[in-house]
Design goal:
about 90 residues; alpha+beta; elongated
């Protein structure tokens, strides 16, 4: 009983919407956002990588389109902001 309580209190809450967002990215996002690759959500910030600087700049101008689509799908509390970065690999 004590061990069960310790394990229950030690677990971290996982928001399954994060997984759904990453796995279904191309079906969820509007327009050119399919060019990006979602890395994940941390503290309300969605990190998206893109192949080049031009795409990053273009998508930054379209951030509101993405946040509106995500809000419609997942509610207002999943993604508060988006950070777009170039994948340098």
């Amino acid at each position: 009983e004590v061990i069960g309580t310790i394990i229950e209190n030690a677990t971290v809450a996982v928001d399954l919407r994060h997984t759904e967002l990453v796995e279904q990215w191309s079906e969820i996002v509007p327009g050119d956002w399919v060019l990006g690759t979602p890395i994940g959500v941390r503290d309300g910030t969605l990190l998206v990588t893109v192949p080049d600087g031009a795409t990053a700049t273009w998508l930054r101008y379209q951030e509101r389109l993405l946040t509106q689509a995500l809000e419609a799908r997942f509610g207002p509390d999943l993604v508060a902001s988006v950070r777009v970065s170039v994948d340098r690999r």
